[in-house]
Amino acid sequence: MSGASPLCLTMGEPAGIGGEITLKAWLARTRDTPPFFIVDRPERLRRLADQVGLNARITAIDSPWQARAVFPDALPVLPLSRAVEGMAGSPAPANAPAVIESITRAHALVMAGMASAMVTNPIQKSALYAAGFAHPGHTEFLAALDGHNATPVMMLVIDGLRVVPVTVHQSLRAALDALTTDAIVDKARIAGESLRSRFGISEPRMAIAGLNPHAGENGSLGREEIDIIAPAIARLRAEGWRVEGPKSPDTMFHPGARATYDVAICQYHDQALIPLKTLDYEHGVNVTLGLDLIRTSPDHGTALDIAGQGIANPNSLIAALNLAATLARSG
Length: 331
Known about the structure:
It is a single chain. The protein is α/β, with parallel strands linked by helices. 38% of the residues lie in helices and 16% in strands. Helix 8 packs parallel to helix 9 (224-238). The chain is elongated, with a radius of gyration of 20 Å. The two termini are 13 Å apart. The mean pLDDT is 94.
């Protein structure tokens, strides 16, 4: 990372664990840790460090260019213009403008080349909705900030496994209705293109999961594999992608199976996230594909129930920072 722009970390929900795990990620830094700064309120982080007993130095910076010099001795903080109020564990809609400012400024800094990638702390969507936030979540908001008809795709990553769910935050019944051949092709295509451009895999191998037990057993357990998934696989192969499937979901994730593909395209949220979180709950990273910039995030939520107690685990955030730096170097 020598000479490269630092990573930009967003505040996330101030009543959650984002500030605590940011402080802990800085305290856990090594010689190989990519330099980062956070768009936040310095005084908020100082109070939080005192509250949870973390001996972390915090320094306000005027520009991202200062972050690299500051980082070895203090956590660099680019101050927000808006105030942040409230207490740990209790989200306040009044903080929504500050949360949104942190995201929009981070996006602008990366797009301007002043930061190499953005790493987002978790947000509390209900608090944002109460303040009139019009987007389903982080991913859709970032796609809107890109200013074009981006198709953002969620990829979850741990060492040895990448998964992409075709349908995401919907009920299972709604996800079944939303599953189409076009949706599978679109998500797989973006995943394949990102593996080439961001992950340095010239010929990505994709495994397409079936939907039903045993991938439908030739239609006896459901026709989705025949009517929806197999046509998607045929289209992807016709475009030149290396694709296998439909794979029986219950045999896709043992070590031997994982060695045969670079990404698993799964049909619904839990089909993708249950195996990933079972294999490595603490180090999962959420990567948004299909954007004009690199964005990663820890694969967990705001954890309001443990916020402010000093017990939050920073491992997923550290993994997100490291992956963002790796993708920035390769992209």
